[in-house]
Design a protein that fits this description.
This protein is of the alpha/beta class and 334 residues long. It is 33% helix and 14% strand. It is globular.
């Protein structure tokens, strides 16, 4: 499908894509302004949605690991349904957070400095080392397959290092060769672009929402000026609940979604202005509650208005269970 001039989407989890939730989301799109669905093709557990032809996915069992997969024929039917209803299909592929691959291929995992064993995050999971080109090649191969199956676009998530402060002291990177973390992420995003652009694919990437405000790479390798010209679209996750207290001198940013995002968007505009070939910006908004107040239609509409007032007409809503606040959506205009 051609890319909508104004894209308004919903995140679709692996379980929602496989189960009865999927037709419900099609129905939501049919009666509201929603015109795109972002479907987990590879999630942050490393599971691939369907039986894959990518050799590495098959070798490590990523496409059979939890026993719940969809056949390529069934997936194709679901994509055909989306296209018939004029719903733009986007594949989400998680890159660096992939416990399946990190456990199966220990050479690709981030290593502990003290003994060169896999470093584990606070949940006990290993992460892939973003320096490893094979990690990004796997993402590119899955993206190419998703595109061949009928997805119109691929969105890369977790294009970063883990966000734990102890990472710097506890880990070692033999492949760094003097490069900073943000240089590594820049180079790897450039690799994805070079791999996929010749196919006509739009290359897009999710980033932390605070990257346009923080002038460092925040320990995760995401610094605005280093990635903004490496992709076609950047999708900042500007969830008000994720901004620290007193950000922008707002005591509780989560309670003031419009004001918080208004500041964030102005930073994005200012940071992108001097960069040649800066990516288009499509924000992720939160349709979930994390701390007070409970997020309902007014809070979601406030985020949308902040975007509109700053010139960002496109957006995507995130709810981890793919349960959305219909009252926050405008009715579909035929």
């Amino acid at each position: 499908m051609p890319t909508p001039d104004t894209l308004r989407g919903l995140y679709v989890s692996r379980w929602a894509a496989l189960g009865r939730k999927f037709p419900e989301l099609i129905a939501v799109a049919n009666r509201t302004e929603v015109n795109a669905l972002v479907i987990d093709v590879k999630d942050d557990r490393g599971f691939v949605l369907y039986r894959s032809r990518v050799p590495l996915a098959h070798e490590i069992g990523a496409d059979t690991a939890d026993g719940h997969v969809v056949s390529s024929a069934k997936l194709r039917a679901r994509l055909d349904t989306m296209i018939a209803h004029n719903i733009y299909p986007i594949a989400r592929i998680v890159v660096a957070k992939d416990p399946i691959l990190a456990r199966k291929k220990l050479d690709l995992a981030i290593k502990r400095r003290k003994d060169l064993k896999p470093w584990l995050d606070k949940k006990g999971n290993p992460w892939l080392d973003p320096h490893q080109r094979a990690v990004w090649q796997y993402a590119a191969d899955l993206a190419r397959e998703a595109y061949d199956l009928g997805f119109s676009e691929v969105q890369f998530d977790y294009v970063r290092f883990p966000d734990e402060k102890r990472l710097v002291d506890e880990t070692v990177y033999p492949l760094a060769k003097g490069r900073t973390r943000d240089q590594v992420i820049r180079e790897q995003l450039g690799f994805l672009r070079d791999e996929l652009k010749p196919l006509g694919m739009r290359v897009t990437a999710d980033v932390f929402g605070y990257t346009a405000t923080d002038t460092t790479e925040m320990g995760i390798g995401q610094r605005w000026e280093m990635f903004i010209d490496q992709v076609d679209v950047v999708l900042p996750m500007v969830y008000p609940s994720h901004f620290a207290r007193n950000s922008y001198q707002i005591a509780h940013p989560n309670a003031h979604p419009y004001e918080t995002l208004d500041h964030a968007f102005k930073d994005m505009i200012a940071r992108s202005a001097p960069i040649a070939n800066a990516a288009k910006i499509i924000p992720w908004y939160q349709d979930f509650t994390l701390g007070p107040p409970r997020y309902k239609a007014p809070q979601i509409r406030a985020q949308k208005k902040a975007g509109y007032d700053n010139g960002f007409q496109s957006w995507i809503l995130w709810n981890p269970k793919s349960n959305y606040t219909i009252a926050a959506l405008e009715p579909r205009k035929d």
